[in-house]
């Protein structure tokens, strides 16, 4: 009799947990369906033209995604340019070079940085970082690199470059902690072999560790890119929220996520809403694609044990 | 016998140590600065009023964020009710049942889902709940945060369950205990601390989420009397006050940000110090 109830309980429990695990697929389907259904009107009216049009003119019922796709890519690119070298160097320091006693406190600090809510970082960025950039960094960039179109013209504070820098601060802990996991999973024999040949610590790191972990670290970078592409609040607060398409990084701009956040409550008619849903759809496509690449790289390199956090 | 370039190689070794150390320090500079400014700007505005008073009407001085603080706790509780059972049980399936390929697919999908931007979740739940319910509500806010927790909790639960030695399961099964009882009473119990740690970290993460709440909870100046009404939330209130035009709002936003950060960091640091054994090393 106990076996009978045991078998029944077993089956029930298995099905229950299976159902919950399947929720993942349900959620993905739901997200895709909702965004698709919501953007039907705009998809129907603009078609592919939506992606290449740079006009956002609610007055005349014209909507285009180009400035926001551009802003998303540019701000994320700036973020990666800043974050990647710093993150990889930090991960290398933490796993290969740092004295043991310093590692754990540093790791905790980096995890705390990752835990700061994005709205707080944006708030700080707006009231502390931007005035500083405006006073010190931007004039210097204008003087030294002003011949490039990216650093031309005046800045009024909130701008694409500020957004890129805030995104860098947010991407660093992710790239660092995933890279650290990757470096830790490099077999010790790799290192010992290089030491045995008389290599210095840095040479061991460069020859035996980094070249071995290349693919995984690339995965970590792509994962950081995925997070930067979709980051909303911090960007909304420092990017300036303009729908203009300009080359200068000192000018305000917008990303897909920040424009949705900024405009959703302003939306007045169905087509406006629908266009914002379609921006969401574009953003989803972009992030899912990038995340798939990142996960494939990470999973083929390090097995399932590397969980991206935050 | 030393190689001719021996000194140069030693120099490079030291140089790289210094460069990487400098990068590591650079990484924690923003953390320290954010902390410093939140404390210097926010601490002076933190008083009893802030915790027990409602926000004042537009432009009036004084008032507090009592409703937003309570609102955030309400939303966290709702999110836990939605997210924890699905996440934990799904994690149990991934760890204890299922075929390799099938589970790989779920795991992969969960990791992709983890990367879905928070604003996207907000838009989806807007279409899913706010439109049919004719307006934002505490319920919609709780649901969106709960859904966001699911992949997070599922993956960490699975991770810690995998750390439970297989011998525990075999010993229980050999005694004739049903598999589900083995899982509930032996496996989950052994890994309970780790599971709770994962849940708390997920809660800490969603507690600070603002983007998904923008169009789902509505925000409110007063108290919400049911889950169908709009509700205030601390991160949302910080955003509104920080981007508003009044000096007094900024002052309160700093104080709110300090409270939110302390809440999030307290959970983060708390779980790390409270639960230090081998089931935590992965989280």
Description:
The complex is a heterodimer of chains A (310) and B (283). Chain A is an all-alpha fold and 310 residues long. Chain A has one domain: MetI-like (MetI-like fold, Orthogonal Bundle). In chain A, 76% of the residues lie in helices and 1% in strands. A two-stranded antiparallel sheet of chain A has the order 1-2. In chain A, strand 1 and strand 2 form a beta hairpin. The radius of gyration of chain A is 23 Å and the shape is flat. The N and C termini of chain A lie far apart (47 Å). In chain A, 52% of the residues are buried. By secondary structure, chain B is mostly helical. Chain B has one domain: MetI-like fold (Orthogonal Bundle). Helix content of chain B is 71%, strand content 0%. Chain B contains eleven helices and no strands. Chain B is globular and about 70 Å long. The C terminus of chain B is likely disordered.
What is the topology?
The complex is a heterodimer of chains A (310) and B (283).
Chain A lengths: L1 H37 L1 H7 L2 H4 L3 E2 L4 E2 L2 H32 L2 H16 L2 H28 L14 H25 L3 H9 L4 H30 L2 H6 L17 H8 L6 H33 L8
Helix pairs in contact in A: 1-12, 2-12, 4-7, 4-9, 5-7, 7-9, 8-9, 9-12, 11-12
Chain B lengths: L5 H37 L5 H5 L13 H31 L3 H15 L3 H13 L7 H25 L3 H9 L4 H12 L1 H16 L26 H10 L3 H28 L9
Helix pairs in contact in B: 1-11, 3-6, 3-9, 3-10, 4-6, 5-6, 6-9, 7-8, 9-11, 10-11
């Amino acid at each position: 009799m106990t076996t009978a109830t045991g078998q029944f309980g077993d089956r029930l429990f298995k099905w229950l947990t299976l159902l919950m695990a399947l929720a993942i697929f349900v959620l993905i389907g739901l997200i895709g369906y909702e965004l698709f259904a919501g953007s039907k009107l705009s998809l129907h009216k603009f078609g592919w033209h939506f992606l290449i049009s740079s006009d956002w003119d609610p007055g005349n019922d014209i909507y285009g995604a180009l400035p926001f796709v551009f802003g998303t890519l540019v701000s994320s690119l700036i973020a990666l340019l800043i974050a990647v070298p710093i993150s990889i160097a930090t991960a290398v320091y933490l796993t290969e070079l740092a004295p043991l006693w310093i590692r754990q406190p540093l790791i905790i600090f980096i995890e705390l940085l990752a835990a700061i809510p994005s709205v707080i970082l944006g708030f700080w960025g707006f009231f502390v970082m931007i005035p500083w950039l405006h006073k010190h960094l931007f004039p210097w960039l204008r003087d030294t690199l002003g011949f490039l179109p990216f650093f031309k013209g005046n800045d009024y504070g909130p701008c694409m470059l500020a957004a890129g820098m805030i995104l860098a601060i947010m991407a660093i802990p992710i790239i660092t902690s995933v890279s650290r996991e990757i470096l830790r999973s490099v077999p010790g024999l790799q290192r010992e072999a290089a030491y045995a040949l008389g290599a210095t610590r840095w040479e061991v790191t460069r020859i035996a560790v980094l070249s071995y972990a290349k693919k995984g670290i690339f995965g970590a970078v792509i994962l950081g890119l995925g997070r930067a592409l979709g980051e909303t609040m911090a960007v909304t607060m420092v990017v300036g929220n303009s729908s203009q398409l300009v080359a200068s990084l000192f000018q305000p701009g917008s990303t897909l996520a920040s424009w949705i956040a900024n405009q959703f409550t302003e939306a007045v008619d169905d087509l406006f809403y629908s266009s914002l849903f379609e921006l969401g759809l574009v953003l989803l496509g972009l992030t899912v694609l990038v995340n798939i690449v990142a996960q494939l790289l990470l999973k083929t390199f390090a097995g399932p044990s590397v969980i991206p956090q935050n | 016998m030393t190689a001719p370039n021996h000194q140069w190689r030693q120099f490079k070794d030291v140089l790289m140590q210094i460069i990487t150390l400098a990068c590591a320090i650079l990484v924690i500079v923003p953390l320290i600065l954010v902390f410093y400014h939140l404390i210097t700007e926010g601490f002076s505005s933190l008083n009893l009023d802030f915790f027990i008073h409602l926000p004042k009407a537009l432009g009036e001085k004084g008032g507090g964020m009592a409703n937003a603080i309570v609102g955030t706790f309400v939303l966290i509780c709702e999110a836990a009710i939605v997210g924890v059972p699905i996440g934990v049980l799904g994690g149990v399936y991934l760890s204890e049942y299922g075929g390799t390929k099938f589970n790989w697919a779920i795991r992969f999908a969960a990791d992709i889902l983890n990367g879905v931007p928070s604003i996207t979740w907000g838009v989806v739940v807007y279409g899913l709940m706010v439109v049919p319910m004719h307006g934002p509500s505490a319920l919609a806010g709780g649901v969106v945060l709960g859904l966001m927790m699911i992949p997070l909790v599922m993956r960490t639960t699975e991770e810690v369950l995998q750390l439970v030695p297989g011998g525990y399961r075999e010993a229980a099964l050999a005694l004739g205990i049903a598999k589900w009882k083995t899982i509930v009473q032996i496996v989950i119990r052994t890994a309970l601390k780790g599971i709770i740690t994962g849940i708390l970290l997920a809660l800490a993460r969603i507690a600070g989420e603002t983007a998904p709440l923008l169009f789902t909870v509505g925000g409110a100046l007063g108290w919400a009397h049911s889950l169908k009404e709009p509700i205030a939330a601390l991160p949302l209130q910080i955003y509104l006050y920080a981007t508003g035009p009044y000096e007094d709002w900024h002052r309160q936003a700093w104080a709110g940000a300090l409270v939110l950060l302390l809440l999030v960091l307290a959970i983060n640091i708390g779980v790390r110090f409270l639960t230090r054994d081998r089931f935590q090393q992965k989280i």
